[in-house]
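call fold(seq) -> tokens
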Amino acid sequence: MTLNFKHITFLLVVCLLCGCGKEKKIVSEPSSKRKDLEKSIKAFNTAFAEGNLAILDSMIATNYLHTNSSSKVIGKTDWFNYLEKRSARLESGEITVLRYELDQTKIEYHGPAAIVTGRGTVVVQDNLGTKENQYRVTNIWVFENGSWKRAGFHDGKIQ
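ret:
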């Protein structure tokens, strides 16, 4: 297997989150912090579905990395360039999000970070009709300055 940039980036993030090479005592997160993350995920997904860039900006880490099956790894600036175009299409009615949902969610806490996995279902309507897609997703969230921020995203389309 040849390691490419995506593989190396993913392995680096996992090692940083897990503290590879260091012994760590695993401590359960307080239930209030867990509820805060669950609320943050829901608020984030609602903001994405609606194209609310102000809320998304407040919930994304500065050094955010975004990877999906149709593009190379991009940072926060490039992802927001995409979001601005998408938001304009939403506002004009060119596209309508009929459903945007994350289910089969599992959260693993690692100190001030969490790995969130699940299945994303997206139903969008445009001038060509209605399209439904499902994705396996992995999100990395970090708790900084008193709130949860999404630091990383990866998805793969479910066939």
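Residues 5-17+28-157 form a domain with the Nuclear Transport Factor 2; Chain: A, fold (CATH 3.10.450.50).
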